[in-house]
Design goal:
single chain; alpha+beta; Rossmann fold; two-stranded parallel ribbon; two-stranded antiparallel sheet; 4 strands; 35% helix; 11% strand; globular
């Protein structure tokens, strides 16, 4: 649906992401083989423990992928930039990306994840994600980031280092 050229699932276990050293090695190996210039990871502070664990192990693995002495079965590779997405309710973005032209695709992609956003059974315990308002919360956040940037919708991105610009002009 998103038009990705390829996708890999390392099948890391729910509620145990990063619980074994092999997870870091698997991820570092993938980073080294794929050689991405930029990597987008889940934001490190989130309501869901798996998102926090994923952010931690992914951050560590990306760092380790750049270390020549870290044994991950492929030559060391360090991306130019690591970014964090899915801003939580209180974090401010380092910058935003205008996604207005692609927002309908995001809506369709989110709607395709029924197991995440709809109760599994009539007697299932309601969660924040299964609330009818959750997709509205996502859209309102993206619309707010867009409004701040003067566009319809924007994705908030956080980086840990300063964003370097050539000058003060907007391009």
């Amino acid at each position: 649906m998103l038009g990705a050229d390829w996708r890999v699932n390392l099948r890391l276990p729910d509620r145990a992401i990063g619980s074994e050293a092999s997870h870091t090695v698997q991820i570092a190996n993938l980073v080294r083989r794929a050689k991405p210039r930029s990597i987008a990871l889940p934001y490190w502070s989130d309501r869901h423990p798996d998102h926090v664990s994923a952010s931690r192990v992914l951050t560590d693995a990306v760092f380790n992928a750049g270390l020549r002495r870290f044994d991950a079965g492929a030559p060391a590779w360090k991306p130019e930039w690591v970014c964090y997405y899915f801003i939580n309710d209180s974090a401010a973005p380092s910058f935003v990306v205008d996604v207005s032209d692609h927002y309908e695709t995001k809506r369709r992609a989110l709607a395709s994840h029924l197991s995440q956003f709809r109760p599994a059974a009539p007697d299932a315990v309601p969660t924040r994600l299964t609330a009818a308002t959750f997709t509205h919360l996502i859209e309102s956040r993206d619309a707010q980031f867009g409004a701040l940037a003067g566009v319809a919708f924007a994705e908030g991105i956080v980086v840990r280092e300063p964003v370097v610009r050539r000058d003060l002009l907007r391009y």
